[in-house]
Design brief:
The longest helix is centred in the N-terminal third of the chain and has 6 residues. This protein is mostly beta strands. 9% of the residues lie in helices and 34% in strands. The chain has one domain: Roll (Ubiquitin-like (UB roll)), CATH 3.10.20.30.
Length: 65
């Protein structure tokens, strides 16, 4: 199992950050995530493997000024 924010999701072999995000709703504005405490930006989502028991936090873009 992996944890995405407060949801528990099943883990599978060869899972990437990109494949996890494709299964979730409303992540279009998510350009950065925290994977096990480390920041990962969207250009690296396809090549970032997800290990069993990973913890992922979605960090949506916030604009302002």
């Amino acid at each position: 199992m992996i944890k995405v924010d407060d949801k528990q999701l099943p883990w599978s072999e060869n899972m990437t950050l990109s494949s996890v995000l494709k299964t979730l709703d409303s992540v279009d504005l998510c350009a950065v995530v925290r994977l096990n405490g480390k920041l990962v930006s969207s250009p690296n989502f396809d090549k970032t493997p997800i290990e069993n028991n990973a913890e992922i936090q979605l960090l949506p873009l916030v604009a302002g000024g």
